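_Per-residue structure_
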Amino acid sequence: MKSIYIEDSYIRSFDTTVADVKGDGVILEETAFYPQSGGQPSDLGSLFRDEDEFCVLRVEPSGPIHIMDRTGLAPGDRVSGRIDWDRRYKFMRSHTACHILSSVIFDKTGARITGNQIDIARSRVDFSLEAFDKSKIAEYVDQANQLISEDHAVRISLLPRAEAMAIPDLVRLAM
């Protein structure tokens, strides 16, 4: 299974074939749907087989398997996938903002991320802070917002896990 979203996070639609059906879910030969992972909900959207629309309710990481609103797709069916782009883009922006905030907090305190949850209405990032100081957190948020307002270019790099883990301060997760 090919994960198109890794190569192109801006993709909005794609064509593929249903590889397998498991209950109310399907596994596609390739997908642009991001599965629920790392504290971020999955993409939503639709699969179209000719004129028939099947709504993607969630995407679970094992497979990944696309949980559908109804049955009817079969292995070998050609489908067109369409991502709920507005939702995807909000998550992308929130994800980037969380990275910026975590970078500011790490630079100022050395605190690492212990958990996170990104959602539409609000997101949270947990840190291994020695002490919680609400005024300092407000300063860090202001600094992150200042960086965001400067409209820096965002670059995406994919590294093998072992290589990423070998780079000091690249992975800022508490282990």
Notes: The radius of gyration is 19 Å. The chain has a mean pLDDT of 91. Residues 2-83 form a domain with the Elongation Factor Tu (Ef-tu); domain 3 fold (CATH 2.40.30.130). The beta strands are 2-3, 13-22, 25-28, 30-31, 45-49, 52-60, 65-68, 78-83, 113-117, 124-127.
